[in-house]
């Protein structure tokens, strides 16, 4: 609840034309809009001044002359009592009013204009520490973050939310998988905001599910989850959530409980994670296959030559892009790394380690809560058949191309950074992970 001051006040710089009247701020007149007159007091005297449409008019000129009001003065108004009694004080030691006598005596228009301009500049708001574009706002008015909490159209805003979900789960979906998504959503409690990205444009078909009424639905034809993530999961939008799940639609969740998963992630200090994958189907990398002898794991062994460093992907600091879970801080970094034009996200999993430190300890797989990757092609069949090639082939080629492009951008960006710092990179080896995208199984 906002507490108003007992004696509201405001100040006005005295500018050319001031004798014709003076505008009173709307907030200052709250509760007094019916009043036709205001009583001005200064130096033991009082003046009854007509108030019209929030503007002091009749007798204002007399008041201005009686108190010898001049260009460059600052007039401070303070409300007194229940009626519209106003005490007016002239500030003569304000930077723009210090030379008041010179202004009056010389009547030098140029001098006055300069001082008035200085007054205007002094009163302008400019806060460099505010978010870009909001520098002209007072910091107390800046709302730099948002959320996906649904609010009412009525009542007190402070009473809209009996509780605020602490986690966000997103699925990129088509209606053909709605029953699988229904089963998945039921694994997430009311402490999760549900956000569905519809790549087939069909949203009303989900109305049969009660939970759909509290979910957020975003629709754009034939777009991937990383296209959606870059555009709808900005860190300042998802900042209220401790963890963000960015999941595919083809995940079996029989052995998964979201609340228990969060407990394990917190217990082991994982900033980026995923559930272990049932080894019976849909596995690609040894690192992400579920192990049955513990709660989590952060390291694995790969084929000889796959890992130049045992603490880097795919031997450690690695999760796949089908079902990643990010902490708020980790996601802020990852979101900035996602390239706006590379929509499939291939290769992103090999760069996630750049966003946490030490990555081989804070990126891991949760074995005690595991899922089954059903490997439904979904968007893979949403491509365009061309030159005798099947629709899925064009999508696959785009994925592989994006992986190579992403790797090149990472390497070039790092080179440019070191060069900008004056570091000689001639002896550096900027080496990609050595994985051939054509051997990668599509998600």
TrEMBL record:
Keyword Transcription regulation: yes
Coiled coil region boundaries: none
Annotated Gene Ontology cellular component terms: nucleus
Protein's UniProt keywords contain Transcription regulation: yes
Residue span(s) of domain TF-B3: 7-93
Pfam family name, one: DUF707
Cellular localization per UniProt: Nucleus
Residues annotated as transmembrane: none
Xref: SUPFAM superfamilies: DNA-binding pseudobarrel domain
Keywords, sorted A to Z: DNA-binding, Nucleus, Transcription, Transcription regulation
InterPro entries named among the record's database cross-references: B3_DNA-bd, DNA-bd_pseudobarrel_sf, DUF707
Alphabetized GO MF terms: DNA binding
Name of this protein: TF-B3 domain-containing protein
Organism: Solanum tuberosum
